[in-house]
Automatic annotation (TrEMBL):
Organism, scientific name: Gluconacetobacter tumulisoli
Protein name per the record: NAD(P)/FAD-dependent oxidoreductase
Signal sequence interval, chain numbering: none
GO molecular function: oxidoreductase activity
Domain FAD dependent oxidoreductase: 6-356
KW Oxidoreductase (keyword) present: yes
Phylogenetic classification of the source organism: Bacteria, Pseudomonadati, Pseudomonadota, Alphaproteobacteria, Acetobacterales
Amino acid sequence: MTPLFDLAVIGSGVVGCAVFRESVLAGLDTLMIERAPDLLAGASKANSAILHTGFDSKPGSLEQRLIRAGHREYLAIHERLGLPLLKTGATLVAWNDQDLAQLDGIDAAARQNGVSLHRLDAEGVRRREPSLAPTACGGLVVDEESLIDPWSAPLAYAQQAVVNGGVFLRNSPVASGTYEDGAWTLRLEDRGEGEKTVRARVVVNCAGLQGDIVEAIARSSPFTIKPRKGQFIVYDKSAYGLISSVILPVPSPVTKGIVATRTVFGNLLVGPTAEPQDDRDVAALGRPQLESLKAAGERLLPSLARHDITATYAGLRPATEFSDYQIEALPDRGWITVGGIRSTGLSSALGIARHVRGLYEESFGRCRPLADPLWPRVPNLTEEFPRPGFQPDRDDIICHCESVTRAEIRAALSDSPLPAGCIGGLRRRTRCMMGRCQGFYCTRRVVELAAPYLPELATLGPGGAA
Ligand SMILES: Cc1cc2nc3c(=O)[nH]c(=O)nc-3n(C[C@H](O)[C@H](O)[C@H](O)COP(=O)(O)OP(=O)(O)OC[C@H]3O[C@@H](n4cnc5c(N)ncnc54)[C@H](O)[C@@H]3O)c2cc1C
């Protein structure tokens, strides 16, 4: 007989991982179902990695409340999970009189959102960020905006769920489902091994970019996903010191605009663009957009022109026709919808998870929180703390650009509660192939180490040769 879980989460983006963790810690027997070979296969694999305060969110919106709650909880738990927090703060910069005229309104909305800002004149902006173009004419400082590791955070949430009894099912696209006698039977796409089903009393739809498609399993979806692409340029580590805080523009109602920020890995990032598209899976890079992004970066920071570009990438926001999150429980369907978490899910995920737990308790019954849960730590990948590659007794270095050792790669492939399931997952867990050479020098050795563990490499011959 197929086991009956209390709760099944569909989708292991950052939101699903946080819901998975919260549900397991609440004492619910929980199953995570992911269609891809590893977590973070959708929107969550590519973002700006800013832990937002929600200062510029619409006051009173669900998004604003859950960003605040998520931000708070990240601060409370990150050390126990080994997660970084780079407290850079942000500088919102006015570049003209029109921008200056908006600062009072932004300040007032931030106060309503519980975030206090302070004002800078042109001289104050120059003192705080001397590399900015001299046309900066004023600004606001947001002290609590911070930077985090966008991949280790969801990994830490999912790992904590797994070591405390949660079950993580990969390569399992949910194709359809039926709700009968108070339980869901979800059918997983047949991948040549015959049809599989799983059962749960309650299903939480965290399918991100596929959110409306998965929602159609329970009802006609009340929202439609309208992917919005964001492209980025990653500058070499030499550019890291050009700014000390996140440089924000005055936002528009549609986008937070082009940001320049450090990363916790020691680079400098410029982006994202905001480009609507129909495709939910492929975030293609476009030369003209990258060229205008580069020009925009150099308008902000003229000396950026002297620094090399390490990489470019793009992500897709799971936007909908609504500006707010679409989160709702359907008590008579055993279903909780978590959709349209477009541009702020990394910051709000832990707040969303708490909110979902509240909806579960209201609609489906009380939880039995674990008395003494385990707190597994993720490996440190940032420059903030010592890394194995810099220790005197270190193992062989495989990726020299990011100083990733053989031991770190082996641990991510086999000695972890949630081992990497694909090369992308291995990169996100270790930073191998993510440095200056983008894998030009280390790919062969990484593939040699990974081939026994990753099915996608199984067709490669010895040494990774096809
Ligand atoms: C350009 C850009 C910049 C951003 N910057 C920031 C930032 O600085 N700070 C911030 O807080 N947020 C930021 N965000 C937003 C954040 O990345 C998103 O809000 C978040 O990733 C949404 O996550 P999700 O879990 O809802 O969806 P997803 O990450 O899309 O996760 C959905 C998961 O469901 C799986 N799935 C789908 N269908 C099925 C199925 N049928 N069966 C099983 N599994 C399924 C997918 O494979 C995927 O793993 C940014 C986003 C973008 C694109």
